[in-house]
Amino acid sequence: MTRADIAHLYRGYIACLNEQDWGNLGRFVGEEVQYNGETIGLSGYRRMLEDDFEAIPDLRFNIELLISEPPRVAARLHFDCHPKGVLFGLPVHGRRVSFAENVFYEFHDSRIREVWSVIDEAAIQAQL
Q1: Nearest-angstrom CA–CA distance, 48 and 38
Q2: How far apart are the C-alpha atoms of 89 and 91, rounded to whole Å?
């Protein structure tokens, strides 16, 4: 897979998330996906994302920076949203917050096998 191929695949994954097209999530995410070192599987990954959209109805993944070096992708994602209640232990309760996520993905057989994510919780806290 070339750098352009994996970047295109990743953009398709982000579109799948933003459309909440859960039926096609398995096109992008492997059955035994790991998240921050823990194997949660495709069903756990889907549940995590569904919970995110339940907690943040206007959630949208926006790519700020994308670097591809097959089999890995590194991205900085930006979020500008109104979480309904508590987010990462912080009492947001409908207030608008803006924050970033720095995330690395490793692909295997054209699907995400590992995800390492760090969310800028300090940015959220500073806005409250």
Answers
A1: 13
A2: 7
